[in-house]
Specification:
The complex is a heterotrimer of chains A (251), B (226) and C (353). By secondary structure, chain A is α/β, with parallel strands linked by helices. Chain A has a seven-stranded mixed sheet, with helices on both faces. In chain A, helix 2 links the parallel strand 1 and strand 2. In chain A, helix 1 crosses helix 8. The termini of chain A are far apart. The mean pLDDT of chain A is 94. By secondary structure, chain B is an alpha/beta fold. In chain B, 31% of the residues lie in helices and 16% in strands. Helices cover 41% and strands 19% of the residues of chain C. Chain C is globular, with a radius of gyration of 21 Å. Classes of the chains: A alpha/beta (251), B alpha/beta (226), C alpha/beta (353). Chains in contact: A-B, A-C, B-C. At the B-C interface, helix 1 and strand 2 of B face strand 1, helix 2, helix 7, strand 8 and helix 9 of C.
């Protein structure tokens, strides 16, 4: 009998994804779904869909899903978690959602030590609306609203979210990962699993920042985007663990 | 110089919107009332893209063409989606290099044009839309040749004016319904996709069509294919 | 610039604002108006203006409040959900008597809704923009050219009356390209003596504020503001009338749906039905006079909108049960066709409705 080498995780519905060719959303969706499967929590998980390219996660994940206004996913997740403390509650947000319009909600959910997991897709651009500047757009990066390259003097500096949140008491895990190669994909999955386990142990707010690509709006092929990510994004957004209460043995 | 409700449809990257703009501008040069309206949104991401172009003597009512008298179909999903909407007696131009299916109706005129092949043989891959434009122009004479050329010049951004002659060639091949004479050389070609999320005057807004870049969905990273 | 050029509605908005002397734009991306911001981000730096992408619409409208209070012509642009976020800010702006231009390129709602065009923010624009008693001047263009022309007027009237103004556009008008003649550019002026740009030691300080703890004072301020509004209602109503003078069935429609209604009126006339169209151009002040003028000879009114029935309430209020007022609407991003509207006209004419 043929051996099954790999299959779609059960927590990921058999629905065609709408993402662009080479978009890393596909990988991260699978990792989150695999973690939900391995922990056996699909039946008591509630995901919060945000606004951006990933707005349709409510069609893709098999657990219950609620759709939030732009940036408000942490607040909506808070509402769900307070109403259903035994649920595993996670948000799936892009850089505009989490770090621009939703920065207030993000920081305060973190400060409350809200027992939710934020999966943060950082691709330095606003994808769904056609490629505008994001809070994580790099200096000099050309986008639809920084046509001459992002000038920090007028358009501000990029924000390093993991570093920022690592200073907030209430954050249990702040880790930055990426999915550019199999080794990093495995490490990303480990981080996501840890985040979900921390929630289930009631340790506090967890954020896994996934440095990602956007071939369409960066104007590159998927392969070139991966290289661009390595050359430009990783130096600015270094991978690593920025806070981990488990390791540090905090309260 | 008669009015038309034109629907051009294909996938993102085929120059559907650009072609519509050329027609609209040519109509403007001709002194007609014109409008151009693109589809926008999730359809843009590698899905079907279409635009409505209205040409008329009178001020245009709805710019959204729901019953075209001319349909340009550059991929199969577009043909399947819009074939039934064409008014009886209308015209459908099909890029037969891409679409092998035949139109089921017998109350419309259908032209099967191997536009992509014609463009490729002329060494200008990605300019099938211009070949089709030539054919459309030939069939309808919606404006004078001079005004069509003016429309083309107005639509190509200043920085890309070096592509003018290549586009003109493809239009001519479309009107003359022939392939480029063998032996004529033509260099490689990057086609400019004027999607609706960027200004048509923006020269920095270009991308290499997926087919040319050789990237298949999901291949680079083993992601779940859409 | 008297040449006719093809321009996308959203880009024409930006170009017209610049021509009107606006040098400050604050906004946030949202479909279907993101081209306004993209265009501004390219043009403003070249002309010494300011383009700033804010972190949200809440931040945008407050930046607009700041710049407007500082005495410059300022605008923002967004779509329906963004206007909801701007509610509080607009109330502050109106309560502080600060002029500014807000562009709403409407999309389907409520909630995240859809990205296709709609007109379901009429109530929001004319009645429920934000808390408290106030109005904005609201304009509804129906062509790209009209959008350009009305932006110029919006800035002028906003400055004259010291109030926020709104251009109520929609995804159709924002995304389509039409021939347009751009106006002669005006240089920005800096002559608002009430602004908070710094007293330079030459005058007592100016305060731009909306907080008045003393009820008597706040009431007086509201009364004065509404006296101003009455003057505006007297003098600034605008509407276009098409084949109305002998019409039996009068359509009332604004913006994109007015174009469709126009086509339907033409088709109806071809069939021998005496249809006409009153097209409000100002939604606030609502063109009561234009409708009142024709209530006598009309047999019925038909309001055509891309919503569940909003402007029709204003029409009903004016007609005051003297004649039947019908409503035809599509919503969610669906655009009605001239054919559908014609069917309604035929039904009304045949006494079926």
């Amino acid at each position: 009998m043929a051996k099954v080498m790999g299959e779609r995780p059960k927590a990921l519905l058999d629905v065609p994804l709408h993402y662009c060719p080479g978009c890393t959303h596909g990988i991260v969706h699978r990792l989150v779904a695999e973690v939900i499967d391995e922990l056996g929590v699909e039946g008591r998980a509630t995901g919060v869909a945000s606004v951006g390219c990933s707005v349709f996660t409510y069609n893709y994940f098999g657990c219950d899903m609620v759709q939030a206004p732009h940036g408000r996913a942490p607040a909506v997740a808070t509402g769900v978690k307070r109403a259903r403390p035994d649920n595993v509650v996670f948000t799936y947000q892009g850089d505009g959602d989490l770090a621009a319009i939703g920065m207030g909600e993000t920081v305060h959910a973190a400060a409350r030590g809200e027992n939710i997991v934020a999966i943060f897709i950082n691709n330095a651009i606003y994808g769904m609306t056609g490629g505008q500047m994001a809070p994580t757009t790099l200096p000099g990066q050309v986008t639809q609203t920084t046509p001459y390259g992002r000038d920090p003097a007028t358009a501000g500096n990029p924000i390093r979210v993991c570093e920022l949140l690592s200073t907030v008491k209430g954050v249990a895990l702040a880790q930055r990962v990426t999915v550019d190669c199999p080794k990093n994909v495995r490490a990303a999955k480990k981080a996501i699993k840890k985040a979900f386990e921390y929630q289930m142990a009631g340790k506090g707010y967890c954020i896994v920042e996934v440095v990602s690509t956007c071939p369409t709006n960066w104007g590159m092929s998927p392969a070139d985007s991966i290289q661009w990510l390595r050359d430009n994004m990783l130096p600015y957004y270094p991978l690593g663990v920025y806070k981990d209460v488990g390791e540090e043995g905090e309260e | 110089m008669t009015g038309h409700n034109i629907l051009l449809a294909g996938f993102g990257g085929q120059g559907i919107l650009f072609t519509g703009k050329v027609i609209a501008y040519a109509g403007l040069m001709e002194g007609m009332e014109v409008s151009w309206l693109p589809s926008y949104g999730p359809e843009m991401r590698g899905g079907t893209a279409n635009c409505s172009v209205c040409l008329s003597e009178d001020p245009i009512g709805s710019p959204l063409v729901t019953e075209p008298d001319i349909l340009v179909a550059m991929n199969l999903p577009s043909l399947e989606k819009f074939e039934k909407d064409v008014v009886p007696g209308g015209l459908i131009i099909v890029d037969s290099s891409i679409i092998t299916k035949k139109v089921a109706r017998d109350d419309v005129k259908v032209i099967y044009l191997p536009a992509s092949e014609i463009a490729e043989k002329a060494g200008i891959k990605g300019a099938a839309n211009m070949v089709i434009l030539g054919k459309l122009f030939k069939e309808t004479s919606f404006c004078t040749p001079e005004n069509l050329d003016k429309g083309l010049q107005k639509t190509i951004p200043a920085k890309k004016m070096d592509l003018l002659d290549k586009n003109r060639l493809c239009i001519r091949l479309g009107t003359e319904n022939r392939f480029q004479n063998p032996g004529a050389s033509a260099p490689g070609f990057i086609f400019y996709n004027f999607d609706s999320t960027s200004s048509w005057k923006d020269p920095s807004r270009y991308r290499i069509p997926a087919s040319a870049a050789g990237c298949a969905p999901g291949s680079a990273l083993g992601a779940i294919s859409p | 610039m008297s040449e006719k050029v093809l321009m996308k509605g959203n880009e024409a908005i930006a170009e017209a604002a610049i021509a009107a002397g606006c040098r400050h734009f604050f906004g946030y991306p949202i479909t279907p108006q993101t081209e306004v911001a993209a265009y501004m981000s390219k043009r403003m730096p070249k002309i010494g203006g300011v383009y700033l992408q804010a972190e949200s619409e809440v931040a945008s409208i407050n930046m607009v409040l700041g710049a407007g209070a500082a005495g410059v012509r300022v605008m923002t642009s967004t779509s329906s959900p963004g206007i909801s976020l701007m509610s509080e800010g607009i109330s502050y702006i109106a309560g502080s008597d600060v002029p500014c231009l807000i562009v709403n390129v409407e999309r389907g709602g409520p909630g995240l809704g859809g990205i296709q065009p709609s007109q379901s923010d009429y109530f929001q624009a004319t009645r429920a923009t934000g808390h408290g008693d106030f109005h904005m001047l609201v304009f509804a263009p129906s062509t790209v050219q009209e959008t350009v022309d009305l932006i110029s007027d919006a800035f002028d009237l906003g400055d004259k009356y010291r109030m926020p103004t709104m251009i109520l556009s929609d995804g159709l008008l924002g995304q389509m390209m039409e021939p347009v003649v751009l106006p002669e550019p005006k240089d920005p002026t800096d002559d608002k003596e009430w602004s908070v740009r710094g007293h330079q030691g030459k005058r007592p300080h100016n305060v731009v504020n909306s907080l008045y703890i003393d009820p008597a004072v706040l009431e007086k301020l509201n009364f004065e503001r509404f006296e101003k509004y009455e003057k505006i209602k007297e003098t600034e109503q605008r509407a276009q009338e098409y084949l109305v003078d002998d019409a039996d069935i009068i359509l009332v429609a604004f913006g994109a749906s007015s174009r469709i209604a126009h086509s339907a009126v033409d088709a109806a006339r071809k069939q021998g039905i005496k249809a006409g169209l009153i097209r409000p151009i100002t939604l606030w002040p609502f063109p009561e006079k234009a409708i009142e003028k024709h209530v006598g000879h009309a047999k019925a009114f038909l309001s055509v909108e891309m919503n569940m029935g909003q402007m029709v309430e204003d029409v009903r209020m004016i007609v005051a049960r003297r004649k039947p007022v019908h409503f035809y609407g599509r919503t969610g991003g669906v655009v009605p066709t001239p054919k559908e509207v014609l069917q309604q006209i035929v039904k009304i004419n045949g006494g079926e409705l």
